Amino acid sequence: MTTISSGETAGPGIADPGATEETHPKTRRRDRARPPKLKFHIRLRRDRSLLIMVVPALVLVVAFSYLPMFGTVTAFQFYDYIAGFFHSPWAGFGNFQQLFGDPNFWHAFENTLVLSFVQLVLYFPIPIALAIMLNSVLSSTARSLIQAVVYLPHFFSWVLVITLFQEMLGGAGALNHFLGVHDLGAWTVMTDPGTFKYLVTAQAVWKEAGWGVIVFLAAIAAIDPSQYEAAAADGAGRWRRMWHITLPGMRGVIVLMLVLRLGNALTVGFEQFLIQRYAVGSSSAEVLDTYAYYYGVVANNFGLGAAAGLFKGIVSLILILAANKLAHLVGEDGLYRSNP
Amino acid sequence: MGTDETGLSRRRLLRNSAFGLGAAAVGTPLLSACGSSASATGGVSSKGLKSVLPDYVPLSGGVAADIPSVTGANGALTDPGYLSYPTNLVKTVSQMPGSGGAYNAITPLWGSIPPAGNAYYQAVNKALGASLVVNPANGNTYANTIPTLVAGNKLPDWIQLPSWWNSTLNVGELAANRFADLTPHLSGSNIRKYPNLAAIPTGGWEAGAWEGKLYGIPSFVTGQAVAGALYYRKDVFDAKGINPDDVKTADDLYHLGAELTAPKANVWAFDVLWLMIQQIYKVPSGGYFLENGKLRSALDSPQMVAALEYAYKLAKSGYVHPDALANDTSNGTQRLYSGKELVQSGGTGGWNVMDAQQGRAANPAYVRGAFKIFSSDGSTPTIALGPSTSEISYLSKSLSPSQVEECLRLANFLAAPFGTYEYTLLNYGVEGVDWTMGKDGPTYSNAGQKDANEQTYQFLCAPQLAVSNPGYNYITQAYCAWSADTVKYAYKPVFWNMNVTVPSRFSSVSTAQEVNDIITQVTYGTKTVGDFQSAVKSWKSSGGDALIAWYQTNVLDKFGAGQ
């Protein structure tokens, strides 16, 4: 089902009986075409099978996401793991004061934002490009094969991926051994703090880009093929077709993924940075999650770690709401829309 | 995507449920805490401890050591060495110790975890007369799993907590709240009910005491508890004609690095040697040192700065293997086995039969050796003694007194000394199934290698350390010779064998996490010594000085330095 962009009309004849141009000067076509709302119990009965299908997932979300939220009270306590939630001394905003006064925290925050931005610019376009390229592969067996190979690394753990990188690009790895034998110097990319953000992005691309292709391929598949034929008949070459048909057709999904990405801007990863933190130093590898781990959990200061996590959650919430609003402004639905 | 025919938009449902439940979560009243936990004021193990310490009753008879213990400085004592194994296995426990109880236990393991419910476990439980199920957990992440167990009230009946995590896990407070007080069962002559436990030297019981009460059951008590040794590939050194005794200063070690490193041949001299660099530079051990009667933090010592400068220099020299600098610690031993590294620092527990077998599997010529200890400038070296044992296990407070007694009887069985029937069963398994008697002693079968080769029950309770490597006597001889030389330079650091429970306001400061984190990074070359010094300054001003002052008045002035 294709999305009707705002401003287009679906055709003559359909109108809201009571509305006129004067009473609703700025409403769009489809808003005026909404049917009257039915009573609650009637809607409940009509939709009960759908609701029942949702219940298991809902239970899971409540049990594993909402109930544990009670634990955020730790952020307001000087949490002692032996005393537990109910007997640890109250801290009020003490943990937050300590958090915001800690230069290590701001450094981690800065690193997180920088890494997020680099990954947005360098990583985000790649699954889109890959999807478009894969879509143009004619042989379906070749396409399935390439797709399977490319998304397989998604299932590897980060330990495996980083070990692989270390074996290939590390100081004692295959590449440097080759360079050393031929007296070509050494490429210490695995321990270089300056290029760490690009290394991390490269690792993320290698591991996750293939998996991200799936969503975009589905979006491309939803585009009406007759549009390509029409464009080709009008003389549009491959690049023009991609620019005018494929990309606009994927726009909804791209914006959705972008909103999700921005909402997750503060979550650049944990394991990946934990494993490499000592290799490049905390100056370039400390992110909010590793900060919460090292200065919260390991330092036996759970309250501080929880405060860092809560801060991250609140900022992420603001970001996702803002990104969603931005999506609405450019005419897309984004993550959700309250008035569809 | 707009509304479909049913009128239900998935987004509306999502939004409505999110709002409804979110409101419920926020509406939960935020609880204010009632007071703090039991040990908010802190305490010291020495308080009143002397009067409750168990009697020490050494066992008579037993196997005579081929390499007897050697006394060193300041009370250090080497472990006895055995070059043969008794053929006649004596039973020290005549009655079945258990009375059918069922207990679960958790111990750490740095090795491959044996299959659950295997034949060896079954045989041990049969001999014990109770079901003691040991669940070995990954030693590398062990400290992170304990808080979750405690918070979820899932502590097992019997748990082992290595003492190097005492401050991270705040074990003093944990003991007071969750562990069984063994003082009424073991103090004074009460321990004589358990002859094997009574034969464990008193230092082991001191190491498990908190605020004047006995909580911990010791394993592997030793008089030569040192941090470790500086190991090297003896076969490679012999082949190259390098004499390790020539290395007498830190500079000698540095030049050795230059001589050994050959990246084109895939060989680097060193791993990250921080463990022994601290010994070489005489960094005060145990966290504190005395200066004119005043207590000071080891982090503040000039020796620490000198040691870190050397570690940083090594990290930047190109003599340290790049994988080691990339924090690949889990493959460290493998790099030594395959000859990619030639010098490594490690604990004394890594020099044994298993090491020789695994090393030889990678490289048939493999032989491990250890440098004689030396100091940075060639002066008389020193090496700090650790507590009498670092392996201590605790019983849960929820056990009834009769259950505690049953567990102590089981511990008595586990503490049977070297060469007895019980010791052989626990360390080697069932004769014929897991091992057969070789020339020098038991040799594992394939089943035994898998099931019985790792430390499982031994971490709950074990007798005094004995050096025995059947079939590999050269290891026993080399280790005992190294130990005899090393104990000559032993000293007891400040607060030796004392357990201090810090007040909860210091529980995070006492970990000095930021400083220790930066120390690790300096040894990898990713932070400078200047960064370390500013971290120490900020640690001192944000609670470190208060912590030291507390130690001065509440520990040093009242109970002394444990010397």
Strand residue content of chain B: 5-15%
SSE order of chain A, one letter for each helix or strand: HHHHHHHHHHHHHHHH
Q: Provide mean pLDDT of chain B, rounded.
A: 89
CATH topology-level fold name of the domain at 86-224 and 387-463 in chain B? D-Maltodextrin-Binding Protein, domain 2
Helix content of chain B: 25-40%
So what's the overall shape of chain A?
A: flat
CATH superfamily of the domain at 99-329 in chain A: MetI-like
Mean pLDDT of chain A: 86
Major beta-sheet overview of chain B: 5 strands, mixed
Query: Any idea of the CATH topology of the domain at 99-329 in chain A?
Result: MetI-like fold
From the structure provided, what is the oligomeric state, counting identical versus distinct chains? heterodimer
What is the CATH architecture term of the domain at 86-224 and 387-463 in chain B? 3-Layer(aba) Sandwich
How many strands of chain B? 21
Name the strands of the widest sheet of chain B in spatial order: 4-3-5-16-8
Describe this structure in words.
The complex is a heterodimer of chains A (340) and B (563). In chain A, helix 10 packs across helix 12. Helices cover 63% and strands 0% of the residues of chain A. Chain A has a domain of 231 residues: MetI-like fold. Chain A is flat and about 65 Å long. The longest helix of chain A has 28 residues. Chain A is an all-alpha fold. In chain B, a hairpin with a 2-residue loop joins strand 6 and strand 7. Chain B starts with 9 loop residues before the first helix and ends with a helix. The longest helix of chain B is centred in the last third of the chain and has 31 residues. With 563 residues, chain B is of the alpha/beta class. Chain B has a five-stranded mixed beta sheet with strand order 4-3-5-16-8. In chain B, strands 10-13-9-14 form a four-stranded mixed beta sheet. Chains A and B meet through helix 3, helix 9, helix 13 and helix 15 of A and helix 1, helix 3, helix 4, helix 12 and helix 19 of B.
